[in-house]
Amino acid sequence: MNNEDLRLYRAKLFRDASSLERKPDRIPHMSFFVTWKILDAGYRLSEAMNDYEIMEKVVRRHQEEYGFDCILEYGARNAIRIPMALGNCTYTVNDEAGTVNYLDKAICEHDELKELAADVKKFFWEKGMARKYDRWADGTVTPEDMQRVIDEQNLFLQYMGRINQVMAGEYGLPPYAAPKGYGYIGLDFMFNTVRGIRGLSVDLRKDKGALREACEALNELYYKPGIEALKAAPVGPAMHACFDYDLTLLCHTILNNKQFAEWLWPFMKETFDVLAKKKMTVRLFMEGSSKRYWEYFKDLPKGLIVMHPEQDDVFEIRKELPNVAILGGMPVSLLGTGTKQQCVERVKRLFDELGKDGGFMLTQDKMVSFRNDANPENVKAVCDFVREYNG
After folding, report:
1. Other beta carbons within 10 Å of 94
2. What per-residue confidence (pLDDT) applies to 391?
């Protein structure tokens, strides 16, 4: 099988498993390893994150060493070179500990929500950038600095284009998703970028009117254009990719059911309805636990959602949500602290109980980030078993 045929074969494995109607030729295995693969390759985090040639070597080695059917992350998760061109970065990298942390920093205060709603771009330019970058605040940023940021953005895009071509052409790996448009929900944008965890928690309880106006303004810029592009896309799945759409949510972790129904579900439901009409499939990753929201997914069409749970039990999902396919099942805690035998036994149980009739794809439950998240010998044992057991 040449690399092109291998790429399409691997994509079909995910498509068949996602459908809940066709049993795949074998159960596919996706890599959800992020910064761990840098450490596993013997590089310092800052070394690889600041050098795209090294990052390419890291990604290549990851596939050569373990042989996944798809790699979700090719070194784009922590693009620190772009913000560092202005002297600041919300990521803190500790090479000695082998850790990356993200600062929960608000670029908008609660009493400025109406100002944000009035003109999002103006607010980001005049106040948001100053909150994020010290040199923007003190007025020392020059046109040359801005050109450097543009240059770094272009270098990043060039790397992403190159690594995607390399992994497809030389290793036969399909992209994990191929969205025809992406609608970024305003409340999740507020949580991730604008107000942060603490700030949004206050907003939801203090002044919902101001928060709603701000979210509506963000939706006009980020959600609506994306969903309209999706609506305009041709009907039918992108068969060269594992999934058609990716929806990763974080802000639900601080919501109760009533808030979820009010702030998130209308946009999620609209997205799901469009995807179902287009006969497309979505990978849904909800950080933490999504169990308290499962009732919303019970009536969605079979084969629409591939649920990738972080904390919820995959066996319980199969019982409660027979209409969704499952991507996951491999606990990072077991990869890090268990034995090879325990890891293999876990995979065998997953395959026997969840995968024998289709509807299951193996990956890790969390982004594998830190050195102790996974023992390389355990990872190798799992990958070898997957190929042998499915063979």
Report:
1. 11
2. 44
* Listed residue (318, 67, 117) closest to 220, CA to CA: 117
Q: Could you tell me if residue 41 is left (phi over 0), alpha (psi between -120 and 50 degrees) or otherwise beta?
A: alpha
The helices-and-strands tally (H runs, E runs) of the chain is 20, 9
Q: Which of 266, 211, 229, 251 is nearest to 104 (CA)?
A: 251
**3-class state of residue 203 by DSSP:** helix
Q: Which of 295, 375, 342, 349 has the alpha carbon at shortest distance from 27?
A: 349
Alpha carbon separation from 336 to 51, 56, 147, 328, 390 (Å, rounded): 27, 25, 43, 16, 24
Q: CA–CA separation, 246 vs 368, rounded Å?
A: 19
In whole angstroms, give the CA distance from residue 83 to residue 91: 10
The Cβ of residue 390 has, within 10 Å, a number of other Cβ atoms equal to 16
Query: What would you measure as the largest C-alpha separation in the chain, in angstroms?
Result: 62
Residue 340: Cβ within 10 Å count = 16
* C-beta separation of 210 from 195 below 8 A: no
- Phi (first) and psi of residue 273, to 5 degrees: -65, -40
Taking the C-alpha atoms of residue 239 and residue 9, their distance in angstroms, rounded to an integer, is: 10
| Dihedral sign (CA 151, 153, 154, 156) | positive
Mean pLDDT by 10 residues, the chain (391 residues): 95 97 94 98 96 98 98 92 83 90 87 97 94 86 91 96 97 95 95 93 93 97 96 96 96 96 97 97 96 97 97 97 97 97 97 93 96 97 89 44
Tokens of 229: 């592009």
H or E segment to which residue 247 belongs: strand 245-249
Contacts (Cβ under 8 Å, ≥6 apart) of 289: 309, 310, 311, 312
Q: Which two tokens stand for residue 212?
A: 């709603």
Of the candidates 347, 290, 351, 300, the one whose C-alpha atom is nearest the C-alpha of residue 324 is: 300
Rounded Cα gap, residues 263 and 256, in angstroms: 10
| Dihedral (Cα; 193, 197, 198, 200), 10-degree rounding | 70
Polymer length in residues for the chain: 391
Residue 67 in contact with residue 30, Cβ under 8 Å?
no
